[in-house]
Task: inverse folding
DNA sequence: GATGGATTTCAATAAATTGTAACAGTTGAG
DNA sequence: CTCAACTGTTACAATTTATTGAAATCCATC
């Protein structure tokens, strides 16, 4: 069974411990952050399956943190609000949070919501947008400026991986393991070929691809702004 | 007996609880959302048999929510309006709602309307039209440019699924599970045969089928404009 | 149980993608 | 500036996938 990584974000250490106390015994791997900035830094370099994000925090509040996370990640986010806090929940859900829960909550409610959000996010087919470039899994289609860009399955998968992990550098080896599988027996040069084709097709469509799909010399490739 | 899932959408928690109090004892499975955005997100990833949608909500009102839901789903929708609210109900029903009910309502009226809408929707047979191509479930008939196109039952079902889900790519596996059933033991190539026959017959009738029923190489087929 | 249409399978062919190897071009450390 | 290592490009071979027609099977109906 898959172990889910949950990122807990709250300025109160005590609350973090309480959340972990609820989640760890259920098999969730918990990572704790005491500020929005720390959470963003974590997510930029690591993967999480879910974020539990407190709204009321000093420096940078939960909504702002949520907004910034959404600029580079589609990780499911559950907002944690205190009863009586006069925050506009609807506004928050619009920013991109997936659900919210009100403190104080009991263990079963917390777990139920987490499971619901995870279940929803697992089956969800991604639809990503980046500077006008749309990558739609359900339609298996890439669009820019209104017209379709025809990509082969491999090209489509590679582009999707980059879009899902902006700014992260992938070595050719990593790309092969992720997209071809562990026991694939593929030359690293093959990745170059696909990258070349992706660049060509997107450039053709007028998308400033060279600005985004970048070569990191001696390491691999990354999608960066 | 089938358990119906009802999606309740209202910005007031109290109203959601009240509705659930009425519906849950009658065997309806209730899902509650506090905003139109949350409701749309839910429906994009989950199934519901009915939506009870409050008109007066901040941010995105019920009509707008209804309109957006209709862009991807045919789920029956009952609008909930407050007495005295000066909304144009006729206008709303045109948008695609199936019925409406005025607050305050009593339990029996609510239940009666829900049952009526569900009964109607269950018996409802689709009739779709696409660029002059008419697919009529009640008559089990397909027409183009005035004359009938004779399709076998399987062909008819496949075409119907595509018309009901424009732009969505179906893998052969998905088509088999959806139209043959989970435990069907059918070769994937069989789908190709049916697709070939559908294409042949529609092409024969003069319909520009190749523009619509498209092969998505390495993935499956889709109905796209 | 024979008939005829519907459905499914199969195999040959066609088409497209993917992988490879060779080489040219580029980069950056020393 | 030089060189070794890395990256980009190209053409083609290998592989995978789609299409098609024909044959086999299924199945309701007479």
Result:
């Amino acid at each position: 069974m898959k172990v889910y990584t949950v990122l807990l974000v709250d300025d109160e250490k005590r609350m973090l411990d309480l959340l972990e106390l609820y989640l760890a015994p259920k098999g969730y791997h918990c990572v704790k952050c005491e500020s929005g900035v720390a959470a963003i830094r974590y997510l930029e370099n690591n993967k999480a399956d879910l974020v539990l994000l407190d709204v009321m925090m000093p420096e940078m509040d939960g909504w702002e943190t949520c907004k910034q996370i959404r600029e580079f990640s589609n990780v499911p986010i559950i907002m944690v609000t205190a009863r009586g806090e006069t925050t506009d929940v609807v506004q928050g859900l619009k920013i991109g949070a997936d659900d919210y829960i009100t403190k104080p909550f009991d263990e079963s409610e917390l777990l139920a919501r987490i499971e619901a959000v995870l279940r929803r996010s697992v089956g969800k087919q991604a639809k990503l947008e980046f500077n006008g470039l749309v990558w739609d899994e359900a339609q298996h289609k890439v669009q820019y400026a209104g017209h379709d860009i025809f990509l082969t399955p491999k090209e489509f998968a590679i582009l999707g991986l980059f879009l899902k992990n902006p700014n992260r550098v992938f070595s050719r080896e990593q790309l092969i393991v992720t997209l071809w599988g562990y026991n694939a027996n593929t030359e690293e040069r093959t990745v170059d070929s696909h990258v070349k084709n992706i660049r060509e097709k997107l450039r053709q469509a007028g998308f400033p691809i060279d600005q985004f799909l970048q070569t990191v010399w001696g390491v691999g490739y990354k999608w960066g702004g």
Q: What stands out?
A: Chain B has a mean pLDDT of 86. The two ends of chain B are 40 Å apart (CA to CA). The interface with chain A takes residues 11, 34-35, 37-38, 41-42, 44-46, 57-60, 167-169, 216-219, 222, 224 of chain B (CB under 8 Å).
